[in-house]
Design a protein that fits this description.
By secondary structure, this protein is an alpha+beta fold. It has two domains: 171 residues; 143 residues, Sulfite Oxidase, Chain A, domain 2 (Alpha-Beta Complex). The chain has seven helices and 13 strands. The strands form four sheets. Strands 3, 6, 7, 10, 11 and 12 form a six-stranded mixed beta sheet that branches. A three-stranded antiparallel beta sheet has the order 9-8-13, with no helix packed on it. A two-stranded antiparallel ribbon has the order 1-2. A hairpin with a 4-residue loop joins strand 8 and strand 9. It is elongated. The two termini are 47 Å apart.
């Protein structure tokens, strides 16, 4: 193996590791609305800058591949385009230079391009296998890798300082990377749904909530007045702090036998929680001093403080209690 080919193989191996790390830490950041999200985003951003640092070397490899007219080269080009779109959209979102691109948040382009790239990465690895050799893990190779990561981390830290010094919108991001929108003003609270969930048209006359051993009407639930101030932190890139009112789940599940709460939407969407969380979960009927509207979950939605927005089930029609482990569900809904 020539020195050039060996360097190319190491570059490909490093890029594969960085892409995997960026993808995993990005999704980990999606899962939390607490401190782990911040550290995941630091690693996520550092991985992104490290990928950028390796692009000059990767471009040399890519040009050789294009000249050889290898089968499937267009798929490789598409993969490169998707990675660049994801990197650019992530940069625009994090700095605030373009929180929205056209009708969609920059975060949607960032995440969408990354997801679309996954099958192409798998195909690329399967058809262009990289052999890991002992020299790839030599002291020199490890030091070079450490230098790339160190430079990427320093570049990320510098970019954060520049964003703050220039007073760019990105300086006001929450630790999850989200931007404040419409806090304490329900009129400005954005409407966001998980993937392809439609907004149903429900009315209080026909709607009811099923819990173990009882069915509740809208009027019965509206008679409760539990209140909580909680932050809805959406994976689409915004957060909004509002006052929500309704009924705590421990009040309507009193005596229910089981270890897990399952909250079910009219659309079939559902999420599971430990029964111990019941007193911290609110079935909200109002936001601010007004009833929810359809886009925000009317007649009732779950408020799950300190969890990302996809846990806040909307259009709730049933709350079940069983012994299925609360972790026995996809980390992110699949519908």
């Amino acid at each position: 193996m020539t020195a050039a080919v060996a360097r190319g193989a190491r570059t490909n191996l490093a890029l594969l590791a960085l892409l995997a790390g960026a993808f995993l830490t990005g999704w980990l950041a999606f899962a939390f609305a607490a401190a782990p999200s911040r550290w995941s985003l630091v690693v996520h951003a550092t991985s992104g800058f490290a990928i950028l640092a390796l692009l000059p070397w990767k471009s040399i490899i890519a040009r050789r591949g294009v000249r050889r007219a290898q089968p499937g080269r267009w798929a490789s080009i598409l993969l490169a385009v998707l990675v660049l779109i994801s990197l650019l959209a992530g940069f625009l979102h994090s700095t605030g230079l373009a929180v929205n691109i056209g009708p969609l948040p920059a975060m949607d382009y960032h995440v969408g391009a990354a997801i679309a790239a996954v099958p192409l990465v798998i195909w690329h690895v399967a058809t262009r296998r990289i052999r890991v050799r002992t020299t790839d893990l030599s002291r020199r190779a490890i030091l070079r890798g450490g230098a790339v990561l160190g430079t990427a981390a320093l570049t990320y830290a510098t970019s954060e300082l520049v964003v703050r010094a220039a007073a760019l919108p990105g300086a006001a991001r929450r630790f999850t990377g989200s931007y404040e929108t419409g806090s304490r003003n329900p009129d400005l609270l954005p409407v966001s749904n998980w993937m392809f969930d439609p907004v149903p048209s429900l009315d209080t006359g026909s709607w009811s909530l099923r819990t173990p051993g009882k069915t509740w009407t809208y009027e019965q639930l509206a008679s409760f007045s539990d209140r909580v101030t909680a932050t809805l932190d959406c994976t689409g890139g915004f957060y909004s702090t509002q006052e929500w009112s309704g009924v705590r789940l421990d009040r309507i599940l009193d005596g229910a036998d089981g270890s897990t709460i399952r909250v079910v939407s009219h659309t079939g969407y559902d999420r599971r929680f430990p029964i111990a969380d019941a007193s911290n979960l609110l079935l909200a009927m109002q936001v601010g001093d007004r009833p929810l509207d359809a886009g925000h979950g009317f007649p009732a939605r779950l408020v799950a403080a300190d969890r990302r927005g996809f846990w806040w089930v909307k259009w709730v029609v049933a709350i079940d209690v069983d012994d299925v482990p609360h972790w026995w569900q996809p980390p992110f809904p699949l519908q």
